[in-house]
Specification:
Blueprint (H helix, E strand, L loop, with lengths): L1 H14 L26 E5 L11 H10 L5 E8 L5 E3 L11 H4 L5 E5 L2 E5 L7 H7 L22 H6 L4 E5 L3 H6 L4 H7 L7 E4 L2 H6 L1 H7 L2 E5 L14 H4 L3 H4 L5 E5 L18 H7 L3 E7 L13 H9 L8 E4 L2 H11 L13 E4 L12 H9 L4 E8 L5 E3 L11 H4 L23 H5 L10 H4 L16 H10 L6 H8 L3 H12 L5 E5 L2 H5 L7 E7 L8 H10 L2 E5 L4 E4 L2 E5 L2 H7 L3 E7 L14 H11 L4 E4 L2 H9 L56 H7 L18 H8 L2 E6 L1
Parallel strand pairs: 1-2, 1-11, 2-6, 6-7, 7-8, 8-9, 9-10, 10-11, 12-21, 15-16, 16-17, 17-20, 20-21
Antiparallel strand pairs: 2-3, 4-5, 13-14, 13-22, 15-22, 18-19
Helix pairs in contact: 1-2, 13-14, 19-21
Length: about 750
């Protein structure tokens, strides 16, 4: 075990810098906090980094300290063995978070705990030797990594104290239950002489009063914890909601309170925030600190946060009205960055570095993509580049929409299913295509927000604005871009429908008289060549398949057609079963050839983010920007990206007490035993020069001639085509994409 811990510590510190000294904090301007003390809120790690590793394991504690604020507080939930030894685990039952049921399959018992009949394997039925020698930890939340299960020992309270965390918090949840069975948490704490214990909390008034004199002598804070408002507090048998009405009475035996976060910012049945309660200001008026609990990165909370966990923390400390005095979190690095890096950030703060924030259909994580509202939100969020994927109508009007098939992005399926057709060159399934409808018909529809994790995982985006906004023509989009100073189907439309999309884009650009930088994106080199004569246009080659390198001949071929490339995330960092397993040479190779690299598509939902990034979109941004050196990120949530780039914590060369560090691929997965690690995936293939070259665009067809002859010329095989049946429809869509990106 010792060898394992040393190895883990070395691995963690290879990618996570040790906390800086407090003296370094002078490089940032002082922040004014609305906490009781006026100091910055505390970050309390519940069981260490329990969002990643089994709760209170040595590895969870080590990573929490290494990756969080210098003043981190380590929280241990106290449980007692049959012989009175203390260890750290939240649940009084051990079967959901340890391997105990494997060793003692007949050990299940039933106890009444605070009026509830509970069944399971209880700590008080086993000696310390039995638990520490035989039982190991498992992750008790199924959406979190399971590859560390059964490999980490249960932590005795003394073991955690011996590591000398910056601060230590002991939570006593079940005093009355243990006392009923002749075990005393208070006596156990006295046996430790309160040494190293900075805070003790409990939801039981009687327990806190019983240790009050000793705690005051030891200068240990006592915190009263509120549970469900309708639950009864064991000592007084009053509901917690009733106790909340008299906070002055709590001040007699405690210096602060813990409340579930919904006590402060309630959420309605539709998962939107309600107005805040007065509990924070009431607690401060009573002279009590107030800590908020229940913060995690991997759970749907309120749609107001746009799936961004940092936004939730900021709601509690940077709202202009009040600030909690601390967070209890399973993901302490995220709480740390919200406090140290993002709080009190002004919207006009300039971004650090030259990385571009490029939208994917505007702020399409918050509003239906390619609508006026999505573009306005992107501009408000500070995006550098807003994008228009150009589509064509039957009557030849160019407009912005993610795809020619209207079903995913509009309400066409509810009113126009009789217009569905099959176009195998674009996709394998039937669709309702823009080039079969007039602009008037399209305007009769409503836009529809795309939620990529709705069908399989039940994670919708902003339902309240599901159909908000208006479609924009390309001309209107260009006017909007100019006023704010801020993928379509080229080959198919040119050869089959008589719609010259390249000519439409050129005409719109000429008419708009833009005096700003313009980026033209396509995965078709012939499309890019069509814009070669205009030197102020930056041409971007979209590479929609996974690659691992770009040999010199490929680089030379790209440079004939493009100034930049847009690659998949998995072309820069390889992934296996939600773990980052390796870093490719793509950025290095492109930069050697003086080709800029953009990465896409970044999303906030934790389901799209590897465990190595802590289920946090900000850490993913840091990995691609600071770790890989990309020149731009293509995102559906530009607010998250611009907030990161505005923060001094994004500059790894500054001496700060906390920095947002990139993840190092392969480090996290290597902590697990070889048997538990996911199988190694084959390396991404290098991009071949022939995959860059496309035949010339066919001329715009004469529809009357084609209709008379009853046929159309066959489509040419282009560079996006992949020679597998499974990928054919996807490659054709990618092959024919023409996107327009405009610098804001």
């Amino acid at each position: 075990m010792l060898r394992f811990l040393i190895l883990f510590s070395l691995l963690i510190h290879s990618c996570v810098a040790p906390p800086k000294t407090k003296a370094a904090a002078g490089t940032l301007p002082a922040k004014k906090w609305l906490t009781l003390s006026g100091k910055e809120p505390a970050v309390v790690a519940r069981g260490g980094f329990s969002g990643l590793f089994p709760e209170s394991s040595a590895t969870a504690n080590d990573l929490a300290i290494s990756s969080s604020s210098p003043d981190l507080t380590m929280l241990c939930n106290l449980q007692l063995t049959k012989d009175g030894a203390g260890f750290c685990l939240s649940d009084i039952r051990l079967d959901n978070s340890t391997t105990i049921s494997t060793f003692f399959p007949k050990g299940q018992k039933a106890y009444k705990v605070y009026g509830q009949n509970l069944k399971g394997w209880f700590a008080l039925d086993y000696s310390a030797d039995t638990i520490f020698s035989n039982v190991s930890l498992v992750q008790n939340i199924f959406s979190r990594p399971s590859i560390f299960d059964g490999q980490m020992a249960i932590a005795a309270v003394e073991d955690v104290l011996d590591t000398k965390p910056p601060k230590f918090w002991l939570s006593v949840q079940y005093d009355a239950f243990y006392m009923e069975h002749k075990l005393s948490p208070a006596e156990y704490i006295r046996s430790l002489r309160f040494n190293g214990i900075n805070v003790i909390s409990s939801p039981e008034i009687g327990f806190l009063k019983s240790i009050g004199k000793d705690a005051r002598r030891a200068k240990t804070k006592l915190i009263f914890e509120f549970k469900d408002p309708e639950a009864n507090e064991p000592t007084t048998n009053k509901k917690y909601s009733e106790i909340l009405l008299n906070l002055a009475a709590i001040k007699v035996f405690a210096t602060g309170i813990i409340v579930p976060k919904d006590y402060i910012w309630p959420i309605d049945s539709a998962k939107y925030l309600k107005p805040p309660t007065t509990v924070v200001t009431d607690a401060h008026k009573a002279g009590l600190e107030i800590y908020a609990s229940g913060f995690v990165n991997d759970m749907l909370t309120s749609y107001n946060y746009s799936y961004d966990p940092s936004a939730e923390y900021l709601q509690f400390v940077d709202n202009g009205q009040f600030s909690v005095d601390g967070f209890i979190s399973d993901f302490p690095p995220t709480a740390s960055q919200a406090i140290s890096c993002f709080a009190h950030q002004k919207r006009d703060t300039p971004k650090i570095g030259k990385t571009l924030v490029i939208t994917h259909n505007g702020a399409s994580g918050d509003y239906p993509g390619c609508t006026d509202l999505a573009y306005q939100k992107a501009v408000d969020d500070g995006a550098d580049v807003i994008d228009c994927s150009v589509q064509m109508t039957k009557d030849g009007l160019a407009f912005c929409l993610d795809s020619a098939d209207l079903i995913p992005t509009t309400t066409a399926a509810t009113t126009l299913m009789t217009r569905a057709t099959s176009v195998p060159e674009i996709q394998s399934k039937n669709g309702i295509f823009s080039f079969d409808l007039t602009w008037a018909e399209i305007q009769s529809l409503k836009p529809q927000i795309q939620s990529p994790f709705l069908a399989a995982d039940g994670f919708p985006r902003n339902p309240k604005n599901k159909n908000a906004g208006k479609f924009m023509t390309l001309a209107d989009f260009l006017k909007f871009s100019k006023a704010k100073a801020v993928t379509g189907n080229a080959a198919y439309l040119a050869s089959k429908k008589g719609l010259g999309i390249v000519d439409a884009v050129k005409s719109a650009l000429t008419s708009s008289k833009l005096d700003m930088k313009v980026l033209i994106q396509s995965d078709d080199s012939s499309v890019l060549d069509s814009f070669k004569a205009v030197p102020q246009y930056t041409r971007v080659l979209s590479i929609d398949k996974e690659i691992g390198d770009a040999p010199k001949p490929t680089i030379e071929e790209i440079k004939k057609h493009a100034d930049a490339v847009n690659v998949l995330r998995s072309s820069l960092v390889t992934i296996s079963q939600s773990f980052a397993t390796g870093k490719t040479k793509v950025v290095e190779a492109m930069h050697k050839g003086n080709i800029s690299v953009y990465v896409s598509v970044l999303r906030n939902e934790y389901l799209s983010i590897t465990f190595d990034y802590f289920s946090d979109p900000t850490v993913e941004l840091a990995t691609f920007i600071a770790g890989n050196g990309v020149d731009g990120v293509v995102t559906e949530f530009p607010a998250t990206a611009t907030r990161y780039l505005r923060s001094p914590c994004s500059d790894l060369y500054r001496e700060l007490p906390f920095a947002i560090l990139p993840a190092k691929a392969g480090t996290l997965v290597s902590v697990a035993s070889k048997e538990a690690q996911p199988p190694a995936s084959a390396p991404n293939p290098p991009l071949d020069a022939k995959d860059v070259i496309d035949p010339p665009l066919p001329p715009v067809a004469n529809l009357a001639t084609n209709n008379a002859s009853g046929g159309a010329p066959p489509a040419s095989l282009r560079s996006g085509t992949i020679a597998t049946t499974a990928n054919l429809s996807l490659s054709l869509i990618a092959m024919l994409a023409l996107g327009l990106l405009l610098s804001a």
